[in-house]
Amino acid sequence: MRRKLTAIAHAIISTIRPRSFSSPILHGIGLFVNRKFKSKSLISLLSRVGFCASYHEAQQLELSTIYHPVQPTPAGTFCQYIFDNADFNGATLDGLNTFHSMGGIKCITPSCSLPSALSIKRLKSVPTAEEVGNLGVLELLTFENVKKSTLQKIAVQDLSMLNPIPSDIFTPCLPDIFWMSGK
Q1: Dist CA 65 CA 67 (whole Å)
Q2: Lowest mean pLDDT among 5-9, 26-30, 142-146
Q3: Distances from the Cα of 17 to the Cαs of 45, 89, 153, in angstroms?
Q4: Closest CA to 7 of 62, 60, 57, 50
């Protein structure tokens, strides 16, 4: 009930003071609808009745999040990257006209070791598609195979020198071996 009252209060305040009040709830709803349905008309309709931010605001929030600097991973935490790929229109046999995508997330545990989330700085202008596309570009590194195998570097030592076998040890004869294997 409290969530509903908060959402309604944010809708009323943002309707009365649209330029001075920026509701994180309405921005979140606008961003969610944009990511889930990709419908500019649905976001515009919900924005006109006061239930989410405008389409432009949702896009600006998404771009501001992309440009937000990545927080460093604290020492003493376990960090794991999880990646998966997706092939759209995978029913094609020839592999043509198929979109291949890969995405990943970074998981850090324990969560209490992470600093609290910083506020995201709002972009003053919308960057071009080329500027956004250049953000996540990583330099390609080529693998150079070393000719020498690492197995060749292993040195095997004679362990009989460290722990010599005594000469007076019992060595069984053939009838003794048959008797021991028969048990």
Answers
A1: 5
A2: 142-146
A3: 19, 46, 73
A4: 50
46: pLDDT strictly greater than 80:
yes
The token pair that represents 161 in the structure block: 């020198």
40-48 helix and 55-67 helix, angle to the nearest 10 degrees = 110
pLDDT mean over 38-61:
91
Q: What is the mean pLDDT of residues 46-50?
A: 89
The two structure tokens encoding residue 107: 């998981």
Q: Which residues pair with 80 in a beta bridge?
A: 107
SS3 content of the chain, % helix, strand, coil (to 5): 40, 10, 50
Neighbouring CB atoms inside 10 A of 183's CB total 4
Domain ranges for the chain, please list them: 1-67
Q: What is the mean pLDDT of residues 2-22?
A: 86
3-state secondary structure 52-118: CCCHHHHHHHHHHHHHCCCCCCCCCCEEEEEEEEEEECCCCCCCCCCEEEEEEEEEEECHHHCCCCC
Structure tokens at 155: 């040195």
Structure tokens at 160: 């009989």
Q: Which helix (H) or strand (E) holds 48?
A: helix 40-48
Reduced to 3 states (helix: H, G, I; strand: E, B; else coil), residue 133 is: helix
Of 19-23, 113-117, 128-132, the one with minimum mean pLDDT is 113-117
